[in-house]
Amino acid sequence: MSLNCIKIPHIKDTEDCETIRFPVPETVYIPMSQHMGAPCEPLVSIGDEVRVGQKIGDTDAFMSTPVHSSVSGKVIAIDDYILPNGRTCKGIKIECDGKQTVSEDVKPPVITDKASFIKAVRESGCCGLGGAGFPTHIKLNFDESKTPVDSLVINAAECEPYITSDYREMIENPEDVLGGIKIIQDMLNIEKVYICIEKNKPKAIELLNNMTLQNNSINVIKLSTLYPQGAEKVIAYNATGRIVKEGELPLNQGIIVMNVSTVGFLNRYFKTGKPLTWRRISVDGTAVKSQCNIKVPIGISIYELLKFAECDESKVKKVLTGGPMMGLCVYDLNTPILKTNNAVLALKKDKKTVKTNCIRCGRCINACPAGLMPTELEKAYEQRDIDRLNSLKVNLCMNCGSCSFVCPAKKNLAETNQLAKLFVAKNR
Fold first, then answer.
1. What are the structural domains, with CATH classification, of the chain?
2. Which of 209, 281, 299, 317 to pair with 148, CA 20 to 30 A apart?
3. CB under 8 Å to 239, separation ≥6 — which residues?
4. Tens digits of per-residue pLDDT, 11-27?
């Protein structure tokens, strides 16, 4: 596997913005699909009173985690919600009472062995907080006899422009980050930990280095400021030197990769029993006047966040959840914040880009961290040639967007790759 990376603008306007708490909103809307995997089914009905941390959705499906209420109040609607991928799930609308009364079910879990540890992680509602949303309890529930794991890689690269929510987790809650790491290490008998941080975050590197000086099992690794250092396979290789092959997970190479905010959350959950009901969101972009990091209840609307950050709606061309490289376009500002969100960007209208024919410069190939040939993938997709797409390893594409970023012809190569992957999956 090639490990090509690219230079992108370093824009971290909110890196020194301490996290502030958003006021309790009038309503929240909480979809029953908050992660990768099966959606939950509502456990409440219209008219029910709910409290903070109360479980309001769950399922028996293997690939799923429960959903909890982020506010106290009354359920006023349950209807169908259209997810960004076009699928639908149930959504629960709650009218907040402003009291934020915590559920009596919220209490620290009792952990005595690995089974109770995995059960507690599931009950926390935790999924990967870096964006992919893989259910955390599934990632941690491996069979040591079949896939022995010796390395825990903490992804603190945060290589996309604008986003600083993980950085603020390290600066504001380093004890939680290291506490979560220790619990995972102890419960899963993991020998080595690698906390991987890009060099453009010297304060976080120094802080965690000083706090781990006496712990020989934890290594703080300074990564080059390149994109996409935070991609799972890239960071696994840079930390351990092991290549995660096509069709494999890091687990197959004895590695668990976890986002730094995920381990921080888990430590807080083990101490308090408070499930995943809020996210730290970096609100930024060229159309935002008051850039900030905000602690918000899950289910609050993006419109409310942008209004709070004094966004100039008249100048907005595009709103994204996530960063400019891999973020998703928001088609409705009433879209709620989910567990997997870490940033909201509002970008101004800019000059129109004109697409031209491919000039065969090879920049997209040089930029691809997986060593793919995006121009050839584009041709194969246009011809609907499944065999060719498979031979070109389309499923290795990690949707980092590097190919589109460097293309002088302004072709939507990354977008085409994702359509190609869906095409192959449907016709497999």
1. 114-272 (3.40.50.11540), 363-426 (no CATH)
2. 209
3. 151, 153, 194, 196, 221, 255
4. 999 999 999 999 999 99
